[in-house]
Amino acid sequence: MAKRIDVSGLTAYYSAHKAIEDISMTVEPRSVTAFIGPSGCGKSTLLRTLNRMHEVTPGGRVEGKVLLDDENLYSSSVDPVTVRRTVGMVFQRPNPFPTMSIFDNVAAGLRLNGRYKKSELNDVVEKSLKGANLWNEVKDRLNKPGSGLSGGQQQRLCIARAIAVEPQVLLMDEPCSALDPISTLAIEDLIGELKERFTIVIVTHNMQQAARVSDRTAFFNLSAVGQPGRLIELDETSRIFSNPSVQATEDYISGRFG
Ligand SMILES: Nc1ncnc2c1ncn2[C@@H]1O[C@H](COP(=O)(O)OP(=O)(O)OP(=O)(O)O)[C@@H](O)[C@H]1O
Ligand SMILES: [Mg+2]
């Protein structure tokens, strides 16, 4: 199958600190890939190298390549702002723009991208909120602030905002860790629907969640505290959770680690 993302020999630093080392992996289109592994192994760092957010952190730099549909995101001709539009991101804590209405939160990225007629904006906002399974809950209060929604609704609002600009890839860093179990299931169902249209990479500490939502799972680990994180194993999720190739993966998923 064609690879949407192809990472090779990727090492990422925060100033002198090497956070992840020599990561090579691929991500297939229209699939969900889960990143799992202990705290500090570099899951968030790797995720942020996939849309050039890593370099926004002072001292953040990378070596190696990340190809998106065969184009190296790190080549000098590539504009990081365009990359971030193509590769969207949803964060751990829902972060709607607090002073903006629900409508404006979803429309924000589109407005940055250029001029839209009011009717076009209406259509995209409705479609995105429907895509994020939030439309029915907010359609009568689109002009109310996004910050007035529940945590789970705010996270779906952030997903609506991310998908409104039609990214090719959606990166999600522990998107459910601040949510209750019902909102978590709503987001998981949504991920299942979104993968029909987008390529999704999700970081999670929840093994059941990785097993439920992902097609492939990547396990990362550290050889010792302070050492860079490495990719230990990437395989079909069913295989990672039933019969992984590496003992460290088995130990981690069964809770025998540390
Ligand atoms: N802004 C930063 N400045 C300096 N070092 C950082 C920064 N962010 C992360 N690091 C370091 O990079 C390494 C990887 O961190 P990262 O946040 O990617 O891990 P993680 O796997 O996402 O952990 P968690 O599961 O706790 O979210 C750690 O050693 C961490 O201390
Ligand atoms: Mg993290």
Automatic annotation (TrEMBL):
InterPro entries: AAA+_ATPase, ABC_transporter-like_ATP-bd, ABC_transporter-like_CS, P-loop_NTPase, PstB-like. It holds the Pfam family ABC_tran. The keyword Cell cycle does not apply. Residues 5-247 form the ABC transporter domain. One of its GO terms (cellular component) is membrane. PROSITE patterns: ABC_TRANSPORTER_1, ABC_TRANSPORTER_2. Coiled coil: none annotated. GO terms for biological process: phosphate ion transmembrane transport. Gene3D superfamilies: P-loop containing nucleotide triphosphate hydrolases. GO terms for molecular function: ATP binding; ATP hydrolysis activity; phosphate transmembrane transporter activity. Keywords: ATP-binding, Nucleotide-binding, Translocase, Transport. PANTHER family: ABC TRANSPORTER I FAMILY MEMBER 17. This is Phosphate ABC transporter ATP-binding protein. It comes from Streptomyces beijiangensis.
